[in-house]
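Bumping my old thread because nobody answered last time. Still need a sequence for this structure:
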């Protein structure tokens, strides 16, 4: 039988996963307005080719490592 920790998945498991602005804000524990501010200040780079802000798991991992 699997324990609770084995059934939980890591949001960064797949490098091709795309996060919306709202999901990114929840992961970073900030408001969506702060995510927009981070993009304007070029601290966080959204994926090209999307009409709205979308972020790759690799970009979020890079940003989190840079902040820590």
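Sorry it took so long. Here it is:
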């Amino acid at each position: 039988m699997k324990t609770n920790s084995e059934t939980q998945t890591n949001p960064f498991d797949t490098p091709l996963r795309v996060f919306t602005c709202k999901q990114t804000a929840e992961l970073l524990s900030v408001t969506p307005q702060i995510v927009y501010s981070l993009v304007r200040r070029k601290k966080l780079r959204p994926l090209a080719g999307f009409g709205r802000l979308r972020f790759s798991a690799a970009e979020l991992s890079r940003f989190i490592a840079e902040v820590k």
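The first helix runs from residue 4 to 7. Let me know if any region looks off to you.
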